[in-house]
Amino acid sequence: MVSPVTVIDQRPAAEMPGPSTKFFGIDNLLIYQRDPLAAFEHYAAYGDASHVALGLYHLYFFNHPDYIHDILVTQADKFNRWSRQKEVVGKVVGNGTFNADGDQWRKQRKLVQPAFHHKRIQTYADVMIRETQRLIDSWQTGQEYDLAHEMLKVTMAIIAQTMFGADVQGMEATISHALTVCMETETRQMEAIIKVPDWLPLPRKLAFRRAIKTFDDLIYGFIRARRATGEDTGDLLSMLLLAADEEHGGTMTDREVRDEALTLFSAGHETTANTLTWTWHLLAQYPEVEAKMVEEIERVLVIARRPCKTCAACPTRKWCSKNRSGSIPRLLG
To answer: Which of 95, 138, 215, 238 is the most exposed place for a label (fewest CB within 10 A)?
Structure first.
């Protein structure tokens, strides 16, 4: 069977469907910068595989599951991460699993894999229940909450506990701001037509350096404290510090642990918080779907008795029941 990506790869970019371009693709780049989501929807209209010139770069978009599987699984060894992405994202998360390629990626993936063993996952579930319950208990009936902020608080509390065994209550705003600065900077630098040196004392460059320092101070502090005690507390940080490279020997350096920890920390709360925010927003619009979800939760927990001992103890059920009357916190902003 001929691979779909191989067939596409044999076609010159000029023959692939996609939007026309002017001024060496700068027109398409400006459209993308104004509204990335609308641009992606526009590209999708050209079929399952399309090509677009964005400035100096030629991008290929694949929408069919077969193409995506071929790229990420079947022929993964033939594809590398975009060099601009590796350079820009590497300033924040280094060369960890998220940003590595080839042998380095395989090595790092093998080292972090034990952290996701099913027995460890169960302990994470207990933390999720506890932190979710704490958030729900803090809500007052009739009050209006910024749901995006509330979800960011709970996911950050969960990842801090499961990752570092630490309580970051009171630091949410600082950490969230640092993450926002990093993500916005990464986006700007990957989209930039002209590179601006990082050493220039510009306001955005200074803010970027401060954001990275915020994460370095936080995570290296956790690493130093844990190495000093040598204790295995069962969290992700312990797993990373204890992970051994069976093939080459040794364990991860502090820098490697920092890169993996920051990758998991940033990916473990911001994207999850966004997903939860939109989930609750949509459930508030479709009460019949909410009712089905509550029914399924109750039914599954009756059968599994996990992770809660009783249906009434389930934080999700309590949240849904609490807000069934229409008092669901509104999505602000």
So the answer is: 138
